[in-house]
Specification:
The structure holds two protein chains of two kinds. By secondary structure, chain A is mostly helical. In chain A, 70% of the residues lie in helices and 2% in strands. Chain A has two domains: 194 residues, Up-down Bundle (Butyryl-CoA Dehydrogenase, subunit A, domain 3); 238 residues, MetI-like (MetI-like fold, Orthogonal Bundle), CATH 1.10.3720.10. The radius of gyration of chain A is 31 Å and the shape is flat. Classes of the chains: A mainly alpha, B mainly alpha.
Chain lengths: 498, 296
């Protein structure tokens, strides 16, 4: 970068010229941002469809379908072409373009806002330039990807059927120049704050980067690359076309889910989690207080150990337990009931028992785990508080009510917020091992995770539907986390998750 | 001066000891049922049902298992393999990552932490994840697909970072750097030696996860030779339930199926190691949960 500054002294001088107290370059690039945003609006065509008379027969587009197609498309309605012309093969690419465009729009808008309101970070204009640089970067990537899309689909159909419109050329050139301009201004600013870019950081701390390589590979394979697969949520999978070429159907899967299972799954997932969080925390606090009050050492240790034990067994063992206790013929409970002269209870065919049973076994497995956290908090309370209270004549109940509980409250609130953040995540192993494939109980015990798991294992044709359910769960959960975090941050920034 | 216990204190103590005793009993009770069932004669279970103490004490269930131990030994072997390989590799990767994001001089530590944390609040869902391994990487049936996905988790990485920050003062690494030590030297000679409790805690969380897993076998195994122990048990339970339902009213013999007491004995054999080790390693889990709850 430093060389280019020397090579372009005049350019630098223009960018540096002050205008209304700020650099001209900032205003120029902000105008480019604005142009980028405007050109991204749906009225501007980025891709033209040409040679229609030869193209359409080649794609098996009937006259009926052709009436719904246009001659030019913006990135936004590119997917409608994919859908109406039944060309799944170019659907994923169109979706990726849309995502890049969303990112570009977001950063361009952020840059504009920062310029207009003159927002500054702790290191002067560095964060402003970083935003501008990112915006221009995405814009360049977007336009290059658009060219790529044209080349890709032309190659796919073996003819010149698509053409990038002049707008794409304009955006490419403008964004590339602005990117360089921001880079030049940033280099100046970095000198002031003794900051450096990523290349210098890699050179300086290359060992640390090497250490991160396995982790990078892991998270790419396990978490980030699968995110591309949310595309399946918008397709109607069939074996002939395969995963990526199955017809694109827009939001039809979601519409179907709303009509069929969405409400039930959301209700079950959230209600169970609310009960788990509420009852779980209350019981954990109660038992933590009780354990903390025990003075006999072996009793304290033994109870703690025993109550923590269920956490260590697998859910398959839990299934064995549940089955042996509630089984119709030989189950422990039915054994006791019949020996007292009652009628056998058919647990496995009566849905109404299961919410209670699932909650009980959740508590059984998790009381000890949560108790540990509360116990640590209680043990951390200064014993002088209790001594002072005793001198004042407070009995043990008053001590707990006025000292222990108020001091446990912050921990309680943190744990509660963490738990609320993951309220859309079901206890998959618990539910699956307790209920399994017992369809009689689904209505009241099915959560997102079990629903999606069943589709994955047994109904490959519903992959689109399952992915849609998973995506809805993920997005809903994500929004809740962000909301919870926002509220926590306003109240007490120290507890914020990010 | 002799302090007389107040009545309220006595009442409270009775409640405390009473409730804790009940709570502990409820927690162990299911284990007792399994254990006693595994020592009970199968016919007794079928006629009289389960009980708290074994009636007609017998070791026949265990004899049945160990007379033809091929399958369960294979499952044991595979689970040990997954646990050892997964825990070792995972521990190395988690420690390296924890070290990097605890370094002040690393400019992108916050961005890296966020990218790791982000995976716990948003994801593509189960199906894209499954298809990534099964179709894109074509790993269905391999053992790799069973241990790889559980190598790391954001919780464990952040836990490890907390341990590293807590046990290695910045001043020591700084002075080592002035003496010309590189990152690998600092990591191997200064951080690792004092990280014992952190390594034990994170390692035990990983190992417990591998030992108790059944889910990845259910998704990726194509051959019962690669099954995890818990999935072997799960499959056994399901197969017998299904066959029992099918054979009702027909003439299919259920004599060849594992009996109730054999299933319980299997459960004991599968959980045994965990519960035997548990009292000795409990403190590491306690420290992990306490440290992790502060920020995790």
């Amino acid at each position: 970068m430093e060389k280019s500054i020397k090579l372009l002294p005049r350019c630098n001088a223009i960018l540096d010229k002050k205008l209304a107290g700020r650099k001209t370059g900032v205003f120029i690039t902000a105008v480019v941002s604005l142009i980028n945003i405007i050109l991204s609006l749906p009225f501007f065509a980025w891709i033209n469809v040409v040679n229609i008379p030869t193209l359409f027969p080649k794609l098996n587009i009937t006259k009926d379908m052709a009436t719904k197609l246009f001659q030019s498309y913006s990135i936004f309605n590119l997917l409608s072409f994919v859908q109406e012309s039944n060309q799944g093969t170019i659907g994923l690419y169109a979706m990726i373009l849309l995502v890049i465009m969303a990112a570009a729009l977001y950063f361009n808008a952020a840059y504009l806002v920062k310029v207009v309101f003159n927002l500054k970070g702790s290191k002067g204009n560095l964060s402003l330039y970083a935003t501008g640089r990112t915006a221009m970067f995405f814009e360049v990537i977007l336009s290059l990807a658009t060219f790529g899309y044209v080349i890709f689909s032309n190659g796919k159909f073996g003819m010149r059927g698509f053409q990038a419109s002049p707008i794409v050329y304009i955006v490419t050139v403008l964004s590339l120049l602005s990117y360089l301009a921001v880079k030049i201004m940033e280099a100046e600013e970095r000198k002031i704050y003794k900051e450096h870019g990523i290349l210098k950081e890699v050179r300086k701390n290359w060992v640390l980067f090497v250490m991160l390589i396995p982790t990078f590979i892991y998270f790419m394979i396990n978490n980030y690359l699968p995110m591309i697969g949310v595309y399946y949520a918008f397709t109607n999978f069939n074996f002939r076309d395969g995963l990526w070429a199955s017809p694109f159907i827009g939001f039809k899967n979601f519409e179907f889910l709303i009509k069929a299972d969405l409400f039930r799954l959301t209700r079950n997932t959230i209600l169970y989690n609310l009960v788990f969080i509420g009852l779980g925390n209350i019981l954990q606090i109660i038992f933590a207080i009780l354990v903390s009050q025990v003075t006999v050492k072996w009793f304290k240790k033994t109870t703690q150990t025993l109550m923590f034990m269920p956490y260590f067994v697998s859910f398959v063992i839990l299934k064995v337990l549940v089955y042996n206790i509630f089984e119709y013929q030989y189950g422990l409970i039915n054994n006791i009931v019949t020996s007292m002269g009652g009628d056998r209870i058919d647990f496995y065919n009566t849905p109404s028992y299961w919410p209670v049973l699932i909650t009980l076994f959740y508590l059984w497995k998790n009381i000890g785990y949560g108790m540990v956290v509360y116990l640590a908090t209680i043990m951390g309370i200064d014993s002088e508080y209790y001594e002072a209270a005793r001198v004042d004549g407070a009995n043990i109940f008053q001590q707990i009510w006025y000292i222990t509980l108020p001091l446990v409250k912050p921990t309680f609130i943190i744990l509660l917020l963490y738990a609320l953040g993951s309220i859309m995540k079901g206890q998959f192993e618990l539910f699956y091992q307790m209920i399994g494939n017992n369809g009689v109980l689904y209505n009241i015990t099915d959560i997102f995770d079990t629903y999606v798991y069943r589709i994955t294992m047994t109904q490959p044709l519903s992959i689109g539907l399952g992915t849609a359910a998973g995506l809805y769960q993920s997005l809903f959960g994500f929004i809740i986390v962000v909301l919870v975090n926002f509220l926590v941050k306003r109240k007490n920034p120290e507890y914020a998750l990010f | 001066m002799k302090i007389k216990k107040a009545t309220s204190t006595i009442i409270f103590e009775i409640i405390t000891y009473g409730l804790l005793a009940i709570g502990s009993l409820v927690c162990v009770f299911p284990f007792i049922i399994i254990l006693s069932g595994s020592f009970t004669d199968n016919v007794t279970i079928l006629t009289e049902g389960y009980s708290i103490l074994p009636r007609n004490f017998t070791l026949s269930a265990y004899e049945t298992i160990f007379r033809a131990p091929k399958d369960i030994l294979q499952a044991y072997k595979m689970t040990l393999y997954y646990t050892v390989v997964g825990t070792a590799i995972g521990l190395i990767m988690i420690t390296l990552t924890g070290y990097v994001i605890s370094r002040r001089e690393f400019k992108y530590r916050n961005q890296v932490s966020f990218l790791i944390y982000f995976t716990s609040i948003f994801g593509g869902g189960m199906i894209p994840w499954y298809l990534m391994y099964a179709n894109v990487l074509n790993l269905k049936g391999s053992t790799f697909a069973i241990w790889f996905p559980a190598l790391m988790s954001p919780f464990l990485i952040i836990l490890m970072r907390t341990f590293i920050v807590g046990s290695v003062p910045e001043a020591i690494t700084e002075s080592a750097k002035i003496d010309g030590a590189g990152h690998f030297t600092i990591f191997a000679k200064i951080v690792m030696p004092v990280l014992g409790p952190g390594l034990a805690t994170v390692g035990l969380f990983l190992a417990l996860g591998y030992w108790n897993d059944w889910y990845r076998s259910s998704m990726f195994s194509t051959n019962s030779e690669t099954w995890e122990l818990q999935f072997y048990l799960y499959d056994l339970l399901n197969a017998t339930t299904a066959l029992k339902q099918m054979s009702q009213g027909t003439s299919i013999s259920t004599a060849q199926l594992p009996t109730e007491s054999v299933k319980l004995a299997m459960a004991v054999v599968a959980t045994g190691p965990v519960l035997l080790l548990y009292p000795f390693v409990q403190k590491y889990f306690v420290s992990g949960i306490t440290v992790g709850a502060v920020k995790g």
